[in-house]
C-alpha cells in the first residue's frame, strides 16, 4: 500500500500547512497541527521518503522577477514516432522559458506554459526556439491577461 493511501487527516493537515508556508520550522509546524515536535518531524520525513513531498521551493512573483508575460501554447506534432517525440521533449526540458509541459488528449499533443520578459522576447523565443524544433505541425498561443486563481495548494 502506498503512503498516500494510508495518509490520515493529520498528514493532510501537515501538507496543507507546508503548502501555505514551506519555511515553517518543525516547532511552528507542530504547533499549527497540534502535535509535539518529534511525531511531527517523523510524519514529515515519512511524507518526504514516500515522495508525497517532492521538494521545497520558493514561489517567485514572475512580474517582479522580470517575466510579466505568460503564454499557454498548444503544440501538435507532425508525427508521433519515438525520434520526433523524444527530440521535442528533450528541447522542452532544456528550455528555461517553458515552465510546464503537459501531454494532452484532444486536438493538440502538448500544452506548454511559457514566461517571457515581453512580446519581443516571445517573438524571439518562437523564432529561435519553438519554430526551430523539428517535428512540430501546429502551434497555437493564448496569452494570459489576468489571473483569477494561482495556487500550489492541493485540496
Characterization of this structure:
- The structure is a single chain.
- The protein has a four-stranded antiparallel β-sheet.
- The model has no long low-confidence stretch (mean pLDDT 95).
- The protein has 155 residues and is of the alpha+beta class.
- Helix content is 39%, strand content 19%.
- A hairpin with a 6-residue loop joins β2 and β3.
- The chain has helices at 3-6, 9-20, 26-32, 37-49, 82-94, 119-130, and strands at 69-77, 98-103, 110-116, 136-143.
- The protein contains six helices and four strands, in the order ααααβαββαβ.
Q: How many β-strands, per DSSP?
A: 4
Element string (H = helix, E = strand): HHHHEHEEHE
Straight-line distance between termini: 22 Å
State the low-pLDDT regions, or none.
none
> Strand arrangement, largest sheet?
2-3-1-4
**How many helices does DSSP assign?**
6
Tell me about the largest β-sheet.
4 strands, antiparallel
Strand content: 15-25%
Write the layout of secondary structure elements.
Blueprint: H1 3-6, H2 9-20, H3 26-32, H4 37-49, E1 69-77, H5 82-94, E2 98-103, E3 110-116, H6 119-130, E4 136-143
Antiparallel strand pairs: 1-3, 1-4, 2-3
Amino acid at each position: 500500500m502506498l503512503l498516500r493511501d494510508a495518509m490520515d487527516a493529520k498528514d493532510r493537515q501537515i501538507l496543507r500547512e507546508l503548502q501555505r508556508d514551506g519555511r515553517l520550522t518543525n516547532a511552528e509546524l507542530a504547533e499549527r497541527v497540534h502535535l509535539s515536535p518529534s511525531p511531527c518531524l517523523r510524519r514529515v520525513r515519512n511524507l518526504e521518503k514516500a515522495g508525497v513531498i517532492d521538494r521545497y521551493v520558493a514561489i517567485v512573483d514572475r512580474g517582479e522577477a522580470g517575466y510579466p508575460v505568460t503564454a499557454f501554447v498548444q503544440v501538435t506534432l507532425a508525427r508521433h514516432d519515438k525520434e520526433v517525440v523524444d527530440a521535442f521533449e528533450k528541447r522542452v526540458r532544456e528550455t528555461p522559458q517553458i515552465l510546464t509541459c503537459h501531454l494532452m488528449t484532444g486536438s493538440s499533443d502538448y500544452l506548454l506554459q511559457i514566461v517571457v520578459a515581453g512580446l519581443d522576447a516571445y517573438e524571439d523565443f518562437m523564432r529561435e526556439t519553438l519554430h526551430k524544433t523539428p517535428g512540430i505541425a501546429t502551434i497555437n498561443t493564448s496569452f494570459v491577461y489576468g489571473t483569477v486563481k494561482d495556487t500550489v495548494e492541493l485540496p
